[in-house]
Write a structure and sequence with these properties.
The chain has 150 residues and is an all-alpha fold. Helices cover 82% and strands 0% of the residues. It is built from 7 helices and no strands. The longest helix is centred in the N-terminal third of the chain and has 22 residues.
Length: 150
């Protein structure tokens, strides 16, 4: 997946989607819930990257749909860093969707996910990365205000 995000093409991201889907056939939620959740998150990341590049709303919607159940297993109590990272990824995907929609609902959901991330992220990630997430949050918040002022 990391290679796919660095390359201009989408072949490696598509391979990552296929690999995650195959892995999920073995890594079931009932048997290995945290491994399942991590794989769901990786699948969501690959789909969000593809959706972002292609402008494919369906892939972004599927990414959001993959993050949400993963967060039911990756709770703050069990795996706080994984939980926070999945919240951030959810926020990113929701923000991308929200930029493509007229309504501000997705952007508001993205703000909520990033705010949740900040509760752990500020202490666990670098200052630069925290500032990057805050910047995304600020841009989304400004866009919401802009839409509301119409």
């Amino acid at each position: 997946m990391a290679l796919g995000e660095r390359e201009l093409g989408t072949a490696r991201l598509e391979e990552a989607v296929t690999a995650c889907r195959l892995a999920l056939q073995e890594l079931t939620r009932g048997r290995v819930p945290l491994d399942w959740a991590q794989t769901q998150t990786l699948l969501g990341n690959a789909l969000a990257s593809l959706g972002g590049r292609h402008g494919n709303t369906e892939q972004l919607e599927e990414a959001v749909a993959d993050y949400r159940p993963a967060l039911q297993e990756q709770t703050r109590e069990r795996v706080p860093l994984d939980w926070a990272e999945s919240q951030m990824n959810l926020g990113n995907a929701l923000s991308t969707l929200g930029q493509r929609e007229v309504k501000a609902e997705r952007l508001e959901e993205a703000l909520a996910a990033w705010d949740i991330w900040l509760t752990v992220g500020e202490a666990a990630w670098s200052r630069e990365f925290v500032q990057e997430v805050r910047s995304r949050r600020d841009k989304a918040q400004a866009e919401i205000k802009r839409r509301q002022s119409r």
